[in-house]
Structures are given as structure tokens and as C-alpha cells.
């Protein structure tokens, strides 16, 4: 017997395969891997999609970093499972000591929650791009479209506000908050241009958007005030922790 593994090319496991999702930075990657592969073999597969060499990869499952020799099935990785991938410092920064990272279940859940919001923001961002093309082309757009999109983006900001996040999840949430804020500001500018397409666009748009500080995912914020034309662009983002 060969303990449920038969030799394949380059020593990889043969047999049935599973699909798993790997969170890396701000993206989720779906990977097909042999069900009885090791985490080391999974790292070699991830090189193709991440560009990271195996020695620079740190894989976490259920809050624990996994060793290269450990088998996926032995760790409980099944079809549809979610893993987290972090990067080790590059060789140029190797003098910086890599501190142990404790990744608990709550952090992974927070990353997943941010990813769900990110997917919805991706969809809304595409709609903002479509509006921008129409406005820049001089086509009149119903004001209701700007209002509805802004409201939908604010809903996503509320969802982000409700996510308690630390570490990697906190960094992902912070990036997504700034992205949503940028889209809302873009909508304000497009709405102003749509209302007055023949004005001097370098000076015609005034956006004053103040966001209160998010504190560990449970902060509050004030929505952007209605657009008020002026000669000065004033954008005041408060510092996010």
C-alpha cells in the first residue's frame, strides 16, 4: 500500500482533486489541487498565480500556519475550503526578523466578510465607470442614477463599518473603505459635470466629504453632504487607524 497516494509526475499526488479558495492580499484565488497533496505542493501550484516562490509563502488554515509536509486532507482541507496566504519578507529584507503570526478564526472570518463587500463594490465600480463614460461623452444622465449608486456604496461602507477586524483583515478593510470613499467622491464630481456640462470643469466641482474615524470596525461616519458649487475643491479625509 502507498498510504492512499500514488506517485505522479514531479512527485505530485494523483487521484481526485478539490477546489479551494486562497485569500491573498485584496483578492481571492480559486485553485484546483489534488485532494491528497501536501501544503508544500499547494505552494508550488500557487507560484503560477501569485508569482511568489514557495519559500516566501505562509499558508494558514483554521487559524494555524501549516508546514510543507502536512497533507491537505489530514488537516481537514476539503472541497470549497478557504486558506489564507501571507508573504514572507523578500531576500533584500531578510535581516528583518519574521515574527510568528497567530491567525485565529475571527481574523479569517473578517477577511471573508471584507471579500464579500469587495465583490459588491467591484460590481458598483463598473457602474460608476459606465456613468463616467456617458458623462464625459456629453450624454445627459438622469440624476437618479447618481443618487442610487451613491446610496448603494454607502450601504457597503456601513457593512465595512460593522466588520471587527485586526491584522491582515484590518488592512484589507481599510483599503476597501478608501476605495468606496473614492467612488463616492467620483460620483459627486460626475453629477456636478452632468448638471453643467459646459462649465469650466477644472474649477466647477466642489466636493467636501468628511468621514469620521473607524475604530476597530465599530466606528461611525457621516455621509457626504449634498454638492454645493464653489470655486475651491476641498476634500478632507480623516485618518483611519
TrEMBL record:
<feature type="domain" description="BAG">
    <location>
        <begin position="113"/>
        <end position="191"/>
    </location>
</feature>
<dbReference type="InterPro" id="IPR000626">
    <property type="entry name" value="Ubiquitin-like_dom"/>
</dbReference>
<dbReference type="GO" id="GO:0051087">
    <property type="term" value="F:protein-folding chaperone binding"/>
</dbReference>
<dbReference type="InterPro" id="IPR039773">
    <property type="entry name" value="BAG_chaperone_regulator"/>
</dbReference>
<protein>
    <submittedName>
        <fullName>BAG family molecular chaperone regulator 4</fullName>
    </submittedName>
</protein>
<feature type="region of interest" description="Disordered">
    <location>
        <begin position="218"/>
        <end position="241"/>
    </location>
</feature>
<dbReference type="GO" id="GO:0050821">
    <property type="term" value="P:protein stabilization"/>
</dbReference>
<dbReference type="Pfam" id="PF02179">
    <property type="entry name" value="BAG"/>
</dbReference>
<dbReference type="InterPro" id="IPR003103">
    <property type="entry name" value="BAG_domain"/>
</dbReference>
<dbReference type="InterPro" id="IPR029071">
    <property type="entry name" value="Ubiquitin-like_domsf"/>
</dbReference>
<feature type="compositionally biased region" description="Polar residues">
    <location>
        <begin position="231"/>
        <end position="241"/>
    </location>
</feature>
<dbReference type="Pfam" id="PF00240">
    <property type="entry name" value="ubiquitin"/>
</dbReference>
<dbReference type="GO" id="GO:0005737">
    <property type="term" value="C:cytoplasm"/>
</dbReference>
<keyword id="KW-0143">Chaperone</keyword>
<dbReference type="InterPro" id="IPR036533">
    <property type="entry name" value="BAG_dom_sf"/>
</dbReference>
<feature type="domain" description="Ubiquitin-like">
    <location>
        <begin position="18"/>
        <end position="92"/>
    </location>
</feature>
<dbReference type="GO" id="GO:0000774">
    <property type="term" value="F:adenyl-nucleotide exchange factor activity"/>
</dbReference>
